[in-house]
Each structure stands twice: as structure tokens, then as C-alpha cells.
Amino acid sequence: MNIPFLDLKRQYHTIADDVKVALQNVIDKTAFAGGPFTAAFEDNFAKFCNTKYAIGCNSGTSALHLAMIALGIGEGDEVILPANTFIATAWGPSYVNATPVFVDCDEYFNIDITKIEAAITPKTKCIIGVHLYGQPFDIDGVKAIAEKHNLHFIEDAAQAAGAKYKNEVIGGFGAMACYSFYPGKNLGAYGEGGALTTNNEAYRNHINKLRNHGCEKRYHHDIVGYNMRLDGFQGAILDVKLPHLNNWNARRREIADRYANEIKNEAIKLPKIHSFSESTFHLYVVTVPDREHFIAAMKEQGVGCAQHYPIPCHLQKAYAHLNYKKGDFPKSEYLASHCVSLPMFAELTDEEVNFVIEKINAYNPV
User: Fold this and answer.
1) Each residue of 276-320: pLDDT tens digit?
2) Residue 300, burial from CB neighbour count under 10 angstroms (0-12, 13-18, 19+)
3) Helix count (H) and strand count (E) of the chain?
4) Domain 8-243 has CATH 3.40.640.10
5) Considering the entire predicted model, what is its pTM?
6) How far is CA 354 from CA 124, 303, 339, in A?
7) Do the Cβ atoms of 81 and 101 come closer than 8 Å?
8) What does the pLDDT look like over 138-163, one tens digit per residue?
9) Which CATH number does 244-361 carry?
């Protein structure tokens, strides 16, 4: 048996007929750049997230960029975010010439709320919490700090479409939430895509202009804008997928529960899961003493694994000018050196999950 880390083809085969119809509809209407299919998805995604508005854009990275502009964040400002995240979280502040200020993660791999206040300065304007790997962070804790210090608060929900915090779908807790629909995500497009959700009409109207060359009426450019629309094909595909998302996420949770309950190898440290969260398990991340040895051993046994974010943000060359050093954020650095993502996608069969668990339990560390 050969178990891939991820297989997008399997999901496609379950919805292929609907996808083909949706794509043909876009072609028939020649609605390629934004348009009615994107608008329909935006309406449905806003309902899914229990927010007033969803604004599609061309990537999750652009969503973070647009959020910074809409909040008025710019040169001289600071934005606090976790060191343990995909680099795009930091790009948002950097694109508007603000400074990302990193803090360590906690034992749940998310932003450590006990470290945030020490990082706040008079220049701080915003805190970005990341629902990393699909698990909601301590929203109430972060939000309380933001409110205490009169700071904006944003959810980076790039990996967490459909996740729940205290039985409420994430996406409406902060000023905005930013989503990625990169193909490998739980709700993935067939190309690049992203969105923002918000309950604030002013933010929604501003972002609508920003993503569309700064105009509301064609050729009337009220502000300097960008070409960051979500294209019609991606809007149509995402709208086909959205009704399936809760079931797909539920299957991921079933697989995660089996990993948590049946992996007994003491060399494998399983992730901690908050009792208040309902994760999407975009990734199921464990830590091991020797990552290279483990991944090689699993590959030899027919189990595909991956490593995500092997260099934490504060040690990336792009941020060398911020003068962070190794040892500043030990938990993030340990995770970066020891994390492994196990096979995780909704179409994994029970037999395949059995196989993965069997091989992991039989693994002998160096």
C-alpha cells in the first residue's frame, strides 16, 4: 500500500460532474473576472461563516494585504503575530511598510497569549491570530488584550474554513478574517483564491474598491487600487465545494480522532487539541526526535508525510533586518525542527488509516 500525504484527485472525482457544469456555465456567460459566480459564492460563504459580508480576492496573501490597508495600517506601525505560521501572515504588514512583531507559540502550536502584552509598544496597531493547522486559537484571550490596548484584531483563517470556537463558526470574531483557497486547503480552488469576511460595511466597501482597481463605478478610480479579484472559474468551483465542506471537515476529524487514540508509539508526540475548538485538521502535525529519519522510514513503508514551516518566520532571511536570533522563540523553533504532517484528507479510507497507524506504531527511532 502507498498512502500519499494528500491526493486532490480523489476529491475531484466525487464532484467532477458538478464542477464541469459549473465551469461550462462560466464559459457560457463569459463571466471570467469577478462576476455573478463569484458574487454567488461570496453570498454563500458569508452565510456559511455567519458574517454579513464575504469579499473574494485572488489569494489569502492578498486578503491579509487588503485587511491591513482597510484598517489604515502603514509605515511606522507594528503588527503582532505568531512566529509559528506560514510566512504570508507576515507579508500583510510588510506590504504596507508596517513591522511584523513576532511572539512565540504555546503548546497548542498557536499564538501564546501570555507573550502578547510584552510585545505591545506605542507603535502597535493590530494583533493577528492564526488558526494554525485548522485549530482555533484562544480568541477570547487575544480579543481581550486587543480591546484593553485599543488594537485591531484579525483572524488569519487561511487553514480553518468551517472551524468552530466555542460552538461558533470562526470568521466573525475580529475586525476581519482572512481566508486562503489555495488548492490544498480544506476549501480549495483549482488555482489561487482567497476571501475576507467581516461584519463591518465600511471595511467591506473599502476592500471591494481596493481589489478592483480602486473603483466602484467602472473607470472612476476613487483610490489607488489593485487587481485582486477572485475570478469566475474559482468562484464557481468554490460554490460547488462549499456545501460539502462540513462533511469533509467531519471526516478529517474522524481521522484525527483515530490518530489521537490509536497511535501509541512513545516517540511520536501527538498534538494537543483545545476543548473549546472544533478543528478542521487542515494538517495533523506531530513532533518526532529525528524528523529526517522518521520521514524517510515512513516513505520506505509507503506512508507519505510532509514538513510545514521548517524555518520559523523570525529566522527567515527576509526578516534578518529585524534582528531576531535563534533562541528568541524556543517553542516555535523546536516545532520547526521536529514537526511532521501525517496523511490527512477526507478521502482517506479506513483501511489506509489503519495502515498509517500500523506503520507509525512499528516505527523505531534512531
Assistant:
1) 999 999 999 999 999 999 999 999 999 999 999 999 999 999 999
2) exposed
3) 12, 12
4) yes
5) 0.96
6) 48, 11, 22
7) yes
8) 999 999 999 999 999 999 999 999 99
9) 3.90.1150.10
